[in-house]
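Listing S7. Sequence submitted for prediction.
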Amino acid sequence: MVSHITLAELKDNYDLRSLLESYALEKNFPNLDPQLANDYGIKFQEILAKHDWQAYLKLDELFHVFLTENTGNPTLQRTIDLLRTQTNRMRYAIVDNDRCMKSSVQEIMDIISAVEKKDILLASNALKKHIKNVYDWEQQFLQK
């Protein structure tokens, strides 16, 4: 059972995630392994082909950690982890949605492509776009 979350709380959490995760990605960018990013892309494509919502959610969590975990700033990481935990409780409560999964995987592929190109600005902007779109989707779900 998921405790009640207001639209305002959801927006605050996603706004902070967008800011902090994009910052952490930029700090961590030199540490990112393009081959590992590519491996994530392959796994996301496999999960999408199987329409496996639960596997998608788990892999998405791991991917966000991959992008942000090696900043050398434990306070930043704890804060991101807390925000991720708060938003994930909502995501796991939502029934699977192929439309959302398909668009999210495409957004993730855009992030991976930017990592492979070693384009930090493109990667950061793609991550912000992905987080915003997930927020928009969850907001629509909550308003039903």
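Caption to Listing S7: primary sequence and predicted structure tokens for the chain studied. The radius of gyration is 14 Å. The chain has a mean pLDDT of 90.
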